[in-house]
Amino acid sequence: MSALKLPERMVFENAVECSALLKKAIAEVCQANRATGNTVAVIDASAVGSFDSSALAVLLQCRRDADALKCTIAIQNMPSQLRELTHLYGVAELLPDAA
Fold first, then answer.
1. 69 φ, ψ to 5°?
2. CATH number of 61's domain
3. Core-most of 68, 71, 79, 98, by most CB within 10 Å?
4. Is residue 14 in some structural domain?
5. CA gyration radius, the chain
6. How many CB atoms lie within 10 A of CB 90?
């Protein structure tokens, strides 16, 4: 299955909407992946161009949603400034890069 795509804008104003859409998508991916024994939902962050700290809240919620389904997440193509924000907030290890 292909990676889940994050939106171009991840800011406070659309954080709730992003979380809801991603929760549904993660559930679908985890269920589909379970049939193949894959427990990782890959999230593609390449489209993210505008974000604030709410993006971290959304990604951490994705992790909780995946954990509840006995899956994990891995993030590919995370913009360097967003990755720096994960280190600043001390959550980088909770949002691993996809291999």
1. -100, 10
2. 3.30.750.24
3. 71
4. yes
5. 12
6. 8
